[in-house]
Amino acid sequence: MHSTLVRAQNVFGFFTTVAFCTAILTALSVVFTTQEPSAKIELRNVQVVKGRPHYYSPKKEEYAHIKFDLDADFTSLFNWNTKQLFVWVVATYPSPDASSLSQAVIWDTIINSHSQSHPFNPLQLFTKPPPAKKSSKAKKQSAKKQELDPEPGILRLKNTKPKYQVTDISGILSERTNVTLEIGWNVQPWVGALTWTLGEGQVLGRWKGVQGGKSKAFDMPPLKKKSVGSETVVSSGETPQAAEASAVI
Amino acid sequence: MAVGFDVQSNGKRHVDRSSVTMADELLQQAQELLEGQIDFEGQKQTELISSVLLAVSGLFAFILGFALQNIYVTLWTGLGGAALAFLVVVPPYPFYNKSPERWLPSGSGMAGSGIEIDGKKIN
C-alpha cells in the first residue's frame, strides 16, 4: 500500500472478491422466494396435412398443426433476480416402437422481467428533471403506464396458432394416439443458476411444481385431403390410386 | 529522469543552470505526486479502510437491493461503494503521511554507534 499504483491494484483486487461474494449471495437469495406457478393448457384444434412444413424441406411429409388455449400464471417465477422467463409448449407422443416418447416444441415465448424491460440507470437521477407539477394529466399518464405495464408472467392465449409445426422422423403423423401438450419453462436469472420446469407434484424447498400444465391426451386426426396451400392440393393428387392406375397401364 | 537532464546539460546546447534545477524540482514533485508514497502508519490505515469500506458496501448493496427487490440497486450501490473506496484510499492524502519514520542519520551506523544484535556490539 506504499504507492498509488499498489493501492489502486489492491482496492480493485479486493473489489472483485466483494463483487463475487455479493453475486453469490444474490444467487442464493432466490432459494427463499416462493414459486407456485399454475397453467391450464387445452387443445383447440389439430390438423395433419401433407406438404413441405418449411420452405427448405427436401421432401413432402406429414405435419401437424396444433392450435391450443393457454391460461397460465407465472408471476411467482419472477423474483428480484429474474432477468427473463422462457416458456414453451411441447407436444409429446409415443414412438411407434413404444420404447420412448417423441417431443416437439410447438410454441414458445420470452417474458421479460420488469428489471429487464425497465433498466435502472443512476444517471437518470441527474439528467431527468423532477416532475414539476402533479397535474391530472400526469396522473393519467402514470395510471396509463401502470395499465400498460402489468406484472409479468400472466399468459392468456385463446385459439393460438403454433409457431412451429410438428414433424416426425418417420414422416407419418396421422392417427398417432395419446398426444399431450405440456408447458415448460426456464427461469433465467441476472446472476446464478438457470432453473427449469418443475413438474406437477414436484417440490424443491419453497418452490412448488406447476399446477396443471398438461392437456388431456388426444389423437391425431387422419390426413386432411384438401387444405391450406396449393402444396396440399398437389399432394392429394398423389394418392395410391394414381400409382395403381399407372401400374395397370 | 535526473540523468536525462544531466545528459542534456552536458550536451552542446547551452542550458540555463537555474532553469535546470527548477525543472528538476518540478519533475521530482510530479514524480512524487505520481508515486504517491505514504508512511507506514498510513499504509496500515489504508489497508484497513479499503477492506472495511469494500466489504461493508458489498454487504450493504446486497441488503438494500434485496429489501427494495431491485437488482439494479445492488449493482449501483456496490459500484458506488467501490468508487468511494478508490477515492478515499488511492490518492496520497496528507493524513496518510502524518508520522514519517525517523531514520538514523546517514553514516551514523558506521563508526560503532552502539547497534546491538544478540547482546553483541556490532562495529
TrEMBL record, chain A:
GO aspect biological process, one term: protein targeting to ER
Cellular component GO terms, alphabetical: signal peptidase complex
Subcellular localization(s) per the UniProt record: Endoplasmic reticulum membrane
Keywords: Endoplasmic reticulum, Membrane, Signal-anchor, Transmembrane, Transmembrane helix
UniProt membrane topology term: Single-pass type II membrane protein
Chief location: endoplasmic reticulum
Pfam family, one: SPC22
Annotated family: Belongs to the SPCS3 family.
Protein species of origin: Letharia lupina
Name by which UniProt lists this protein: Signal peptidase subunit 3
Lineage, highest ranks first: Eukaryota, Fungi, Dikarya, Ascomycota, Pezizomycotina
Segments for region (Disordered): 121-154, 213-249
Automatic annotation (TrEMBL), chain B:
GO CC terms, sorted: signal peptidase complex
Pfam families in the cross-refs: SPC12
Subcellular location: Endoplasmic reticulum membrane
Annotated keywords: Endoplasmic reticulum, Membrane, Transmembrane, Transmembrane helix
Primary subcellular site in the record, as a coarse category: endoplasmic reticulum
GO terms of biological process kind: protein targeting to ER; signal peptide processing
Keyword Hydrolase belongs to the record: no
PANTHER family (alphabetical): MICROSOMAL SIGNAL PEPTIDASE 12 KDA SUBUNIT, SIGNAL PEPTIDASE COMPLEX SUBUNIT 1
Protein name: Signal peptidase complex subunit 1
